[in-house]
Design brief:
With 207 residues, the chain is an alpha+beta fold. It has two domains: 82 residues; 108 residues, Rieske Iron-sulfur Protein, CATH 2.102.10.10. Helix content is 31%, strand content 28%. It has one helix and twelve strands; from the N terminus they run αββββββββββββ. The strands form three sheets. The protein has a five-stranded antiparallel beta sheet with strand order 5-6-7-8-9, with no helix packed on it. Strands 2-3-4-10 form a four-stranded antiparallel beta sheet, with no helix packed on it. Strand 6 and strand 7 form a beta hairpin. It is rod-shaped, with a radius of gyration of 47 Å. 15% of the residues are buried. Bound molecules: FE2/S2 (inorganic) cluster (FES). FE2/S2 (inorganic) cluster binds next to loops.
Amino acid sequence: MELDDPIRRGGFVEHRRERGDRDRRQRRDVEGHEAVLAQPSLDLRRADLAQERAANVLDADRTRVDVVGCDDPILAGTGPRPAVRDPVAVPEHWEPLIAGAEVPAGRVVEVEIADDEAVTWRTRSGAPCVMARRCPHLDWDLTDAIVMGDELLCAGHGWSLRSDGVALKRNEFGREDAKGTIRTWSAREHDGWIEVETPGEAQPGDA
Ligand code: FES
């Protein structure tokens, strides 16, 4: 091959130019093809997103319609917000039981709470204590009991009834045997009255 032949050289140049053009065309075609391929996938993704959004809106609308369609204004979101309350808590309510002056230290006084018979007395510190009137042993009347510090000593058989309601039997050596409990009420002294806590709606004066 005569490389210095101008015709052949020109042919070679021409060939390279043609080949370059063809490569560029192919590259353009490929890029165009990729662009064409990429475009639908983008559109599809957009379409998916749009469809997703539309479904969410539909769901939200459906929920709103369902809720609005119900009769309960709170569920429907059109009524007042309900107050948050502890379902277990019972509101405290204090009932006056007896004037504090009628219960001097060392004395056991009979009282009534609704239909229950009870007694009230004062512990060593002077705090009022209210408990059932009948001893848990053999129903002795506790108005006969003796106040011993923070306990009542039953006159029947000597059981001790603590202010927290625990019943004990003590022997001469000081051994204590638990004997169950006696019913007690929470009590306080307020404005000259011994009051007991009872279940019920709190009143404005309760504090
Ligand atoms: S009745 Fe009270 S101790 Fe027996």
